[in-house]
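Most newcomers find our protein records easier to grasp once they have seen one. Sequence and backbone structure share a record, each on its own labelled line. To make this concrete, we reproduce a full record directly below:
***
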Amino acid sequence: MALTDGTYRLGPSTTRLLIKTGRAGLGRRAGHDLTIEAVRWSGKAVVAVGIPDRSSVSLMVETGSLKVREGTGGLKALTDADRAEIERTMTNRALLHTAEHPTITFRSTRVTGTPQSFEITGDLTIKGRTHPATVHGEGNGDGLLRGWATITQSAWGIKPYTAFLGTLRLADEVRIEFDVARLEPAGE
């Protein structure tokens, strides 16, 4: 299905929303590069193919819905207990503090390009702090879309996780990726 003008519903049933982390520090060989998936989120895309300025995107992610899907690298395999501990750590005050900040939001301010190659600039709010973010995307002409943005955690007040007296830490930059498997028109 080619991307056409309209309003589309976004969410886990049609789109994967992933966060990919990397490692830094002298002890980085001990840790894992993580793939984390948002499992409860919703959004809307208004598409005006010929007039991208009239297009918009908005998303809301429940911070407590982030699940560790994969851990690569490291000295040993990532266990289920490791996954559970990482998910608990993400909810604390130094990272996302989900009790006080239950959602992450993105609202576009500008859309440029074509369905095959586009940029979405907008306001990303994490932990009550709002900063601009740019999403780069591409489509294959059949309505399948994918894209990415790189953000610096510390800009939003997130202290990258550290262990072993700081010799192992997550890199401050994380990559957010999306992959739209199918478009679902929003019921008006």
Notes: The mean pLDDT is 88. The CA atoms of residues 37 and 150 lie 16 Å apart.
